[in-house]
Structure formats: structure tokens, C-alpha cells
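Mods, move this if it's the wrong board.
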Amino acid sequence: MTISARVRECMEGSSWIRRMFEEGCELKARCGPENVFDFSLGNPCLPPPPEFQQALEAVVAERCPGKHAYMPNAGLIETRTAVADYLTKEHGVAFGPEQILMTCGAGGALNVILKALLEPGDEVIYLIPFFPEYRFYIENHGGTGVPVRSQKDFSPDLSALEEKIGKRTKALLLNSPNNPTGKVYDDPSLAKLGELLREKERQYGREIYLISDEPYAKLVYDGIRVPSIFAAHPHAILATSHSKDLSLPGERIGYAAINPAAPHAKELAGAMIFSQRVLGFVNAPALMQRVVAHLQGVTVDVGWYQRRRDLLCQGLSEMGYSLVKPEGAFYLFPRSPIDDLEFVQELQRYNILTVPGRGFGAPGHFRIAYCVDECAIEGALPGFAAALQKYRS
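Not the wrong board. C-alpha cells:
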């Protein structure tokens, strides 16, 4: 066999997001891109804020030795210091640059964290619905993914989590605001999760890490804020990126932050730096590190996304779709009136591209990525109505 049997198996069950995106490319080629309403991929069409262009031009114009040279694998000290200062203000925890690792996006951060933490057979719990790459990230490093159901409003189900945490559990991986639901896990939920993890740590005599994947943390609505995971649990690690808050997904720039209160923070930081090197990332892109050092606390216009959320939620609710209004990110995860794959295929008849919920471990739903122009939402609403009416009648 030419390729690894394991990789072949993973490819066959790989991301529905990319699969629908590729089908969308074919549909656009046939019908013209202006006639297709593509909600398949979470690719921001909102440009970066003006501060980004200003910082980029200033950094490019700078003449300094070693601007594009190798650096410490953890990243530039000035960038890590800027991130540490920002996190100190945001979380009320005294971060230093030694707790920060600049990474190739949040995906790079998660792989570095998991490489540093996991022994073969260790389990990592994550909530349903989930970002589909989590399973592959965990398996990359010898771990086993354990998906656990959420409640109907997509909040954590503590009884289900308690049942699944066992002697092989090494981490609980959260994603808030969540992809695909837009759910933000609130303070009481995080506090209870922290209590549960500490109880299980005492029971099994081992650390259980709380890893929070937060690339959408600044994209929240209606006065909601994303609570600090560092207040919830000492063994906490944050993974994030500037892909969404600065609209820079193609630049692959993010970071991981270790709770300074973690008993083994220094050893963990060393393991993550080593993992960054041996996984082949080496270090995060030098130019982008220099740019984002000036942009901590800057974000895109969140109101731009909120207007699209409100337009879409109002339209679909009035039609009769069952949905939970997103609190953050730019995804909506309605219930499907029939089998989710069949319904997604029905929507394609109206040139509407969405992703079936089974791709996120939650059949019976479908995901709409509303990081699109308003005209795409307005143009798609009649098709959403027609598809639902077919099955309601």
C-alpha cells in the first residue's frame, strides 16, 4: 500500500467542512460564484482592522539586523512580553513571557500542547459538537479522543463529563466560543468544571489539564464575555490565534499560554518549546510575530458579525427553524428537519452550501458559517424557506 493505512482511514472520515467547500467550488464553476451562497467555511471575508495595515507597513519598513533570522523556538521575547502583558490585564493573572509560546495558529498551539502532555493511550475529552480536527490532533500524539454529549443548549453536561473522566484522562479540551454552535461557556459552568477536574485529580492521583481553544474569544455579542479558564483550574492552558479576531487565517499566527499557577509550569513550557521544534513548526512566522506585538487588544468590528447573526437568526426563526442563538463566533447550528446530510444536499438545489452536523459529531443539525456579505444571507433566505417548507408539508 502506497500510503499509511491509518492516514487512508482518516482521509475517508476527514473534515466535512473541506468536503462541502470543495463541492462548493464545483457548484460555483457551474453556476457562477455570484449565484452560489457559500456558508461552508469559516473564512472571514471581513478585512483586518486598519491598525494591522499600519503595523505591517511599519514592520516591513524597519531596517534592523536579523529581522528574518532564526529565533528562540518560543518566539520573539518582545512579542511574548506584549502577549503576557495583555493576558495579565485580561485575566487578572501575572503572566510573564516565560509562560507564552508563539505558535503557527491555534492548530499549531494545540498540537504542541498535546505532544508535550500525552502518553500513549492517554484520553482527551471534548464536548459534542466539536471541531472535527480535534480527533486527529489527539491521535497524532498517541492519545484517544473521548467525545461527550452536551446539553440541549450546548452547555456542558456535568453528569456526562463525570461519567467519562477516568484514570486515563489527561485533559479536557474546551472550545469557547464554540465552533459550530457559537456557545460561550459561562462562569458558573467553568467553575463547576474546575471543581470536577480537581476532584478527579484527587481521585486518580494525576493532573488533568483544562485546555481551552479560544480563537473566537473576542467575537462575542450582547455584552457577553468569555470567562477566564485560569480562574477555573490551576492546570489550565490557553490556545488561541489571530485568525479570527484580526482576520488573518492565512498568516498562521497564534500562541499558547500556560497558567503561571500550574505547579509544573516551567517544565511544561520546556516540553512545549521542544515539541514546537520536533513537530517541524520550529517557530511562529517572524514577520507576523513582529506585527501582532503591536496589536494585542485590537480586534475587527464585532458588530459586523452581530448584524449578520441577527439577520440570519431572525429570518430562519420566522420560517420555523429550531435554533439556539449564538453568543459568539460566526456559526449557527440549527436543527435539521430530516437527516442532516439529506437536508444539506437539498439546500444545494438552491445553491446554498452548508455543512452536515455529523461532521461535528452531532447528526440532526447543520452548520451555517455567516462570515459572509449580507447580500449572501438575503439571497439565501428564500432557498432556506423553500427547503424547509418541502419537508414540513
